[in-house]
Amino acid sequence: MTTLKKGDIAPDFTLFDSDKNEVKLSNFRGQNVVILFFPLAFTSVCTTELCSVRDDIAFYQSLNAQVLAISVDSPMTLDKFKEEQNLNMSLLSDFNKEVSTQYGSIYETFALGMRGVSKRSAFVVDKDGILQYAEVLENAGELPNLEAVKACLNTLS
After folding, report:
1. Which residues have C-beta within 8 Å of that of residue 96, sequence separation ≥ 6?
2. Which residue range is the domain that position 78 belongs to?
């Protein structure tokens, strides 16, 4: 499994969002991008994480940063999750698990014997497509260090 680190080129990807639109990472060149991988929609820790980002979205926008949240859920599941939690960032479906794997953010085995669920992770990609922050958590009950993500974004503005 690949381990990405600061200074690596962020692997490009194209995924469908909760509105069934194609979203391509390279289309955000010229902006900073925060990529958040999360295990599963509707679970408590994922809801807490994404709602905290939702409530702080103005901070990310003030630093010209786009937030992309990725899970292996289907676009339809993500659409319902986005609607119920009033989320204001793009939710992307990595149903085929390719991007989670590229980013070293996938559990071989997760709870209830599920295989191939995204690990909770945070990445910051700068305007040139270079990783400036990478955090992959083994424990799905932990949250990424969003304060460190914000501090990284502050250095890029």
Report:
1. none
2. 14-156
Which residue numbers are catalytic? 46
Is residue 100 within 8 A of residue 37, CB to CB? The reply is yes
Q: Mind giving me the DSSP string for 32-75?
A: EEEEEE-S-TT-HHHHHHHHHHHHTHHHHHHTTEEEEEEESS-H
Phi, psi of 127 (to 5 degrees): -60, -25
Model-wide pTM > 0.90: yes
Integer Cα distance of 64 and 81 in angstroms: 25
Could you tell me the CATH number of the domain that includes residue 131? 3.40.30.10
Mean pLDDT by 10 residues, the chain (157 residues): 86 97 97 96 91 95 95 97 96 97 92 88 97 94 95 92
